[in-house]
Please model this.
Amino acid sequence: MLTTKKPYVITRGKVIIDYSGLYCDTPEQLLRSELFEEIVDRFIERVAMRESSTFAFLKNHLHELKRDELTRYIVNLFRLLSSHTAEEIAAMNVEFRAILSEKEHLHEFIEELYNYWRRFERFIHLEAPKRSRYSKSSIHHAQFIKSNEEFKNLVLYVYRRISENLTGKNPRVYRQLPAGANMGMLIEKIDWDCPETYGSLKEIPFIRLSLIEPPLILYPAMNKRKGRFEEIPELTKEMLALDPEEWFCFPAKVGDLTAFIYFHRDFISLGLSLSNLFEIADYEDIEGRTPDLMLIFGLTNDNPAGNTVFYEDRDCGTLVGLIRHSEEVDYFGYFKKMTLTLHNIAMLKRGRLPVHGAMVYIKLKSGGTANVVIIGDSGAGKSETLEALRVLSEEHICEMRIIFDDMGSLGLDRDGRVVGYGTEIGAFVRLDDLQPGYAYEEIDRSIFMNPDKTNARLVMPITRYYHIVKGYPVDILLYANNYEQIDDEHPAIEFFSNPEEALCIFRSGARLAKGTTDEKGLVHTYFANPFGAPQRKEEHEKCAVSYFERMFETGTMVGQIRTRLGIEGFEQIGPRSASIELFKVIKGLPPSS
Model:
């Protein structure tokens, strides 16, 4: 790993650029930058290790040069090619004549170097002066976006200019590939009410603006989550020992809670992907305040008892998650689920019931409406069923609004009705079970993760923050049963007659594991929610009984829906048929509901 004194860092297949220290607006500046020289050097080292034909070409023509001289020679040649043709250079400088005579081989070298650069996950950041409120200015937002666009265009221009001057030909096809940064962030140091224990976090800058260049495909080391989030009895300063220069903070609104999500730069691609999942907190949610939740992702010390632990700080009222720096946790699910575990525990403390599921508001063209909640653990078919309902019933449905796609909570409104609240503006969706017809409307804004592997995922925006905190009355609450076939005794949808019958099914939390975690076969998870419910089971049980009794008292329809998603061969058929039955139920509701 490179030192932090440089204006960039290359680590774990990522290039992280401090744009204030490495600003380039001309081809000359780009080609004279330390980063460009290091990329060329690393590329030559790579082709040398592989003993590829590209390196054989270099050795043939430049065998008299030492290793460090080889990089300098190529960089100088590219600088000349950015402003002169191959013929002009050969006429002016004899040392480049031999290599320029092999135009096809040299052009292939240029193409491979360009592709090598583009295979890095590339990030830029620009920091504002402390306490400047720089990040609130739309002018600076526009400047930051413009700078990123100019950087992308500059890289494309230099690549094309060098290629054209070498070959003497213009391309027939121009591919406007994202050649600059994949993601960017405007960051700022903000004074917050920081308890003494967390002093090491004080100087870590907050992300105030993020920028994504889609289509974005990331390849985290892992493609599933395993293990549990365990509570630790104490938290010390030593556990939080870190170098602030290597960290960033994503301030998130998780429902109506504020979470400071700190991440080590090695996990920057996952940390910035949170932009598609959570609303970025306002300046007023940060300055002079202590957050409701904190997650510190990528600690390099060995103090925590495990890779994924959390602590309830009763002194300052904050729940704190700690995740150790390890390739084993290089998966977006750890960011998402640890944050939501902390959220769920906080909700229980406030008297709300956290639920692991999906909620949607549906309005029929006939005038009827329904707010439907489907509860189930990962792979139960909740999201798939609701998306199938949208696709299959478009001629009857005029509006379908997602309130939450994975985690929410139930509360009471002023009239004593049970209402649902969300946590995220986005969704972390599994691709394996989705056919093209099920695709979300926002797929072109998505971040893809390991699309070539089992449990391929994407992170996509799906709703507005206003809707997740508004509170929608719950008309139908269903448990997603993905393991039972449908027959005369087991219909696609059945409703319970009393709270005790319903609670029995929800407590059992049975499902056929789909390989999204390390579980296999028929498993049971208390209330289908391993994220806070088991850790606070006594509090959860009291809360659940109270809410289920209230739902039966106020006429909420409570039952289960058999999605059959866990049964082989029914991955698409199951959610589709379940959605048809759900539509029939919604259609049969009285118009006033």
